[in-house]
Amino acid sequence: MTSDLIESHDPLEPTTPPAEIVEREAELETLAEMFDEDTEARLQNLHVSGPRGTGKTTILRQFLETLPATVTTCYLSGISHNTQYKALEHLYTQLSGTKLGPGHHVAEIQRRIDEQTTLPTIIVLDEVDFLLRNDGDDLLYFLTRLDKTAVITVSANRTSLQPVLDARTYSSFQPQVLRVEPYLPAAAARILADRARNALRPQSLHRAALSQIAQTTQNITLGLIWLREAAETADDRITPDTVQAIKETACHEYVLHLLADFTPHHRRLYEAIARLEQVSDHPPTTGTVYREYCDHCEAADIVPLSERRVSDFLTHLELLDIIDATYHYGGAEGKTREISLADWHSQPE
DNA sequence: CGTCCACCGGAAAATAGGGAGG
DNA sequence: CCTCCCTATTTTCCGGTGGACG
After folding, report:
1. Nearest nucleotide from residue A329 CA, by C1' atom
2. By three-state DSSP, how is residue A98 classified?
3. pTM for this structure?
4. Residues A105-133: what's their mean pLDDT?
5. In sequence order, what are the residues at sequence separation of 6 or more whose Cβ sits closer than 8 angstroms to the Cβ of residue A105?
């Protein structure tokens, strides 16, 4: 291990909150104003959108911390809680402090939660697209109908949830909206620099190396992983050359980070697409990807999932912004998707 | 105008698991 | 322990799509 450039791993972890939030003061203030003072009277719903790695989750977690103790808060991600049941179970555990376990009825947990939310409560539904895709909007409908409860949804894919919600759900939801814009390269560089200062040995990072990362991607999660990979490879100083050389590995690690909460089959599927990308410059179609995935499985002596199932997993990769999919609803090609890795993987310069 | 491409995506069913009551 | 309820994951089934091509 030549990772002696790294003095402390935590600041480079995307899930570690920054020592101080910079470049997002305006958004934090907006949040503070929205739920200011007499919180109970101003409990309103909110939808937050913005590309990946722009600080949505970080801002909201920080915001929940600043709320007075009179407000109950709960954070949950639609990736690990992709059904109403899982989300309700987690919510109940948070609210009551007692675990529930499987085997109950949704209606029963709903009733219990209803009893628990007698005090002002704010619930954050991060990565809400995955829950909506997988299990519809019943949970959101239920939550928005609770007394003294505000729901904050978060999505990297949709600026408004209206198109994917039942009319009755949306009219009960009626969220304020907050758009989180991408960072400018200079801002991304400042954020990464703050983290690097606390993580790396002094003088070990070329300013030019850091700004090269920030020029290439304004996604802070990707930037941090890139930085970490560079630090683990370089034996003395991180130079622009190290950064350039490690780029592909960094992207790969970033995808694995995104897929950490998914199944091994999601990762195999990604590998299959990446492999096809190298072999051909013509974007493969769903069937080609599936056959490649099956070969991949067979070589590893693993039973592949059905085509229908894999089709859903492809949609997951698309929601994670790992792949781009062009839909063909008929025509000479038939009804299918053209699939390619998202362009941040190998954009030159 | 009919057929075909090639899979989308909804629905139902199969499978596997846990809780409550008798 | 058995029955009947529930959820979660995956497979099976299949109607539907719209431009090309005869």
Report:
1. C17
2. coil
3. 0.94
4. 92
5. none
Q: Would you place residue A165 in the very low, low, confident or very high pLDDT band (cuts 50, 70, 90)?
A: very high
Q: Return the number of other C-beta atoms located less than 10 Å from residue A277's C-beta.
A: 17
More confident residue, A6 or A258: A258
pLDDT band at A39 (very low <50, low <70, confident <90, very high): low
Nucleotide nearest to A311 (CA to C1'): B8
Protein residue with the closest CA to the C1' atom of nucleotide C19: A331
Q: How far: A344 CA to B11 C1' (Å)?
A: 37
Residues 287-316 of A with CB under 7 A from strand B: 287-288, 290, 307-308, 311, 314-315
Contact A314, A337 (CB under 8 A): yes
d(CA A128, CA A153): 6
Who has greater pLDDT, A236 or A81?
A81
Cβ-based neighbour number of residue A3 at 10 Å: 13
C21 C1' to A335 CA distance, Å: 17
A335 touches strand B (CB under 7 A): yes
Give percent helix, percent strand, percent coil of chain A, each to the nearest 5.
Answer: 55, 15, 35
A84 touches strand C (CB under 7 A): yes
